[in-house]
Amino acid sequence: xxxxxxxxxxxxxxxxxxxxxxxxxxxxxxxxxxxxxxxxxxxxxxxxxxxxxxxxxxxxxxxxxxxxxxxxxxxxxxxxxxxxxxxxxxxxxxxxxxxxxxxxxxxxxxxx
Amino acid sequence: xxxxxxxxxxxxxxxxxxxxxxxxxxxxxxxxxxxxxxxxxxxxxxxxxxxxxxxxxxxxxxxxxxxxxxxxxxxxxxxxxxxxxxxxxxxxxxxxxxxxxxxxxxxxxxxxxxxxx
Lengths: 112, 117
What we know:
The complex is a heterodimer of chains A (112) and B (117). Chain A has 112 residues and is mainly beta. Helix content of chain A is 0%, strand content 48%. Chain A is globular. The relative contact order of chain A is 0.34. By secondary structure, chain B is mostly beta strands. Chain B is built from no helices and 11 strands. In chain B, the strands form 2 sheets. In chain B, strands 2, 4, 5, 6, 9, 10 and 11 form a 7-stranded mixed β-sheet that branches. In chain B, strands 1-3-8-7 form a 4-stranded antiparallel β-sheet, with no helix packed on it. Chain B is globular. The relative contact order of chain B is 0.31.
């Protein structure tokens, strides 16, 4: 199975400051169609997960533009340009290139 | 509005069985692959199973293979997960999730299965 490794495990951030989460896959996530199937998911406390970004950098409808995704091959990053209180929660990366689908262990974003 | 609503969870004894349901609405369920993903208490997300749109092909995580069966009724817009020979380690919130071409996009609210004596 493809192992997804996230860092850091916990990310205390000051409101209004940037935050960055790293995700590394044990195999390339590039598919033969040229797309890279890396997804970012947010889970706020007590809520169901919600997809934020797919194919590395495409934001879902309604996702604020302070969220951005980047990367290629096996190394990916989720950035929040200015953290707001509603961004508190756990963020997961997920790969869809190989079966089974696998998730990173999660990064907990909290306010300092 | 796209919606997934799970039901059927509860307290089950080890070795017991339970069937989860997921009612889908707001999209073309019969042409969409679907998944189950679970989350143990305080833990991360783990993919469990996937079924193709017509139910012809299914795949499972090794941890549930031979014990769980995913199925669907496209006439009722409903996804199922039959869970047999349950173990304590199957205790989790189970989410019904819509496939979106090498990604998953819409999640239900989840249903909790607790396996305990």
